[in-house]
Design goal:
Layout (H helix, E strand, L loop, with lengths): L10 E6 L2 E11 L5 E5 L6 E5 L4 E5 L4
Antiparallel strand pairs: 1-2, 1-5, 2-3, 3-4
Length: 63
């Protein structure tokens, strides 16, 4: 997924290489689409994710 601005409100998984490093609901994306805020369950309520080489983003479809 290259245009992160389309992901607001979607459940996603964050990948680095072949490993899932995080997952949650995309709460917001910066205007330039290079940073997103991920809302999570548990002790860490919110996390900033930046686009960088080696970071992939998968959209997780929810039923």
């Amino acid at each position: 997924m290259s245009n992160w601005k389309l992901l607001v409100g979607q459940a996603v998984q964050i990948w680095r290489g072949n490993e899932i490093v995080d997952q949650g609901l995309v709460e917001a994306v910066t205007a330039d689409g290079s940073v997103l805020w991920l809302t999570q369950k548990g002790a860490i309520g919110r996390r900033m994710v930046t686009k960088e080489r080696g970071t992939g983003l998968w959209v997780q479809l929810m039923n």
